[in-house]
Structure formats: structure tokens, C-alpha cells
Design brief:
Elements lengths: L2 E13 L2 E7 L12 E4 L12 E9 L7 E6 L4 H7 L6 E8 L11 E7 L4 H12 L3 E8 L8 H7 L2 E6 L6 E2 L2 H12 L3 E5 L2 H13 L8 E4 L15 E5 L5 E5 H4 L2 E3 L20 H5 L1
Parallel strand pairs: 7-8, 7-11, 8-9, 9-10, 11-12
Antiparallel strand pairs: 1-2, 1-6, 2-5, 3-4, 3-6, 4-5, 12-15, 13-14
Length: 289
């Protein structure tokens, strides 16, 4: 179960176009699993920003001089993240976590390809550590719009057997998108599974490549979606998306509690941003009457 921690900031530092924040959050660090996230209160006690901000967990340390710590990556995109960037060591901070369903790990050693877009790559590093502990081979494909917006290039070179980089403008690695090089990587390393985190358009492309792998036989893809999350605990319903359940029926599920990790072939990519007519509870049946 997630816990609420009145912690403190340990460090804030710029990393390329992003910021890294490490917070003392004993009780969260010890139970975090790869793919989960935290929800952080922003603005301080006197601020007017009521909604928390959700961030993927980049790394954790269960013990240390200050206790357990959690590190996350963010980009300044509004008032909340601008406030975070101005925090300093020892400033108080309120964190809830770990939240969401994590990545499922292979039971036996497997060849795993990790795909990240921008700072969406952040949760893949905790995942890579867990996979290697289980004897899995890890290869990576990281992309971004520009070289400045790539995250974790050096870490990726240390964690993975091979890394391919892509940028839209060709300023780092190959010019293009992660889906341009992913088919070759899957074939070359004989991948058994793909894990990915990044923008929804990228994730849709990753699922398309994974489903077409090996002449259409396909391989499973686990995708950590980046839907907007206003509460992080399933109350506000702002992060719903259509997902096909084990009974083959479509339901609108909450990314924050039912995800953020989903099997890529169960997401209704054709209906993102809408409620499909055939979704359970859509109300279409009532309208027809």
C-alpha cells in the first residue's frame, strides 16, 4: 500500500534539459518496484496549487545517512514544476507513493529490449537493475527530439549490452525515431519482450513494431503510459483510457491505479481520448432505448 511521507529535499540538480530531485522518503523507497510512480505536493503550505504532480521513479536507496531516498526526473512545464526546480536541500516536501502497477518481470532469464522517449526513459533504469538481477540480457533504445532532451545516455551505456540512440534532428545518434531502429534491435538480440515508457504516440509505434516482430508472430510489450494524472489515486478519473480486459471486453480504466503499465496489445489505440461505443458502461445502450 502507498504511504504519505512528510520528507525533505536532499538535492536538486539540472541534467540537460531536465531536473533531478532526490527526496528523503523512508517508507516509500523500501517498497518501490520498477514502473511505479510518486505524487508530489507542490506550491508549499501557502500555495494555491491543490493537485499533486505525478513523476516516475528513477532510482531508490533503501538505506543511507538520511534514510531511504527516492529520485525522480522532471521537466519545467508549468507553475508546479517551476516551484519544484526552486527547492533547496532540507526544504520540506510531501510525497505519496509508490503508486500504480509495476512492470512484470520474467520468471526466467530473457532477452529484454528497453525503449524510452525523452525523460520517459527514467523508470527504465530501475527496471534494468531488476532484470539483470534475474539474469536477463538488457538492450536499450533511447530517443528524443534533440540531443539535449535525451535522458540517461551515459547510464544506458553502463547498464545495457547495447544501446541505440535516435533524435528527430540527428543531433545525437541516428536521425529518426526509436521505431525506426527497434525492428533491427529486436532481430539482432533475439528479443523476448519489449518494455517502454514515453509519449503515447511513441508507445503506439513500439506496440506496432513488437506485434509485427518475427514475421508477425510478435513479442509481448509492456508499456508505461504517460496519461495526465491529476490525483494519482484513482479519484479524479482524468487519466482513463480504453483497455481490453481478460474477458475481451473494453473498459475505461484508470492509468494511475490500473496502470501505468499495460500490455501493449490490450490498449485500444484507435480509441484513445474517447469512450468507444462498445466499452462497458459507455451508455450507448441506454441512448438507443
Amino acid at each position: 500500500m502507498p504511504v504519505q511521507v512528510k520528507g525533505e529535499v536532499l538535492s536538486v540538480k539540472p541534467i540537460g534539459d531536465y531536473y533531478s530531485m532526490t527526496v528523503v522518503a523512508s517508507g516509500i523507497a523500501e517498497i518501490t518496484r520498477p514502473g511505479q510512480f510518486i505524487a508530489v505536493a507542490v506550491g508549499g503550505d501557502d500555495g494555491g496549487m491543490l493537485l499533486r504532480r505525478a513523476f516516475s521513479i528513477y532510482s531508490v536507496r533503501e538505506t543511507g545517512v538520511y534514510g531511504g531516498t527516492v529520485e525522480f526526473i522532471f521537466s519545467v512545464t508549468g507553475r508546479g514544476t517551476a516551484w519544484l526546480s526552486r527547492q533547496r536541500p532540507y526544504d520540506p516536501i510531501d510525497v505519496v507513493g509508490p503508486l500504480g502497477r509495476p512492470f512484470a518481470l520474467p520468471r526466467e532469464p530473457a532477452n529484454c529490449v528497453l525503449v524510452g522517449g525523452g525523460y520517459g526513459s527514467a523508470p527504465l533504469f530501475l527496471l534494468a537493475d531488476a532484470l539483470r538481477t534475474r539474469g536477463c540480457r538488457v538492450d536499450a533504445v533511447l530517443g528524443a527530439s534533440t540531443g539535449d532532451r535525451l535522458f540517461g545516455a551515459l547510464d544506458a551505456k553502463r547498464m545495457a549490452a547495447s544501446v541505440a540512440f535516435t533524435t528527430d534532428d540527428g543531433s545525437y545518434g541516428e536521425k529518426g525515431r526509436v521505431t525506426d531502429v527497434l525492428p533491427e534491435v529486436i532481430d539482432r538480440v533475439h528479443a523476448d519482450v519489449v518494455y517502454a515508457c514515453g509519449p503515447m504516440a511513441m508507445l503506439e509505434g513500439v506496440q506496432r513494431v513488437a506485434g509485427a516482430a518475427y514475421g508477425g508472430a510478435g513479442i509481448p510489450a509492456q508499456l508505461a503510459v504517460e496519461e495526465s494524472m491529476a490525483c494519482g489515486v484513482g479519484v479524479c478519473m482524468t487519466c482513463v483510457l480504453p483497455v481490453i480486459g481478460s474477458d475481451d471486453n473494453t473498459r475505461m480504466v484508470r492509468s494511475c491505479v490500473d496502470g501505468p503499465v499495460f500490455a501493449g496489445d490490450r490498449i485500444r489505440w484507435d480509441a484513445l481520448g474517447s469512450i468507444p461505443d462498445d466499452a462497458i458502461g459507455s451508455g450507448v445502450e441506454v441512448q438507443k432505448k
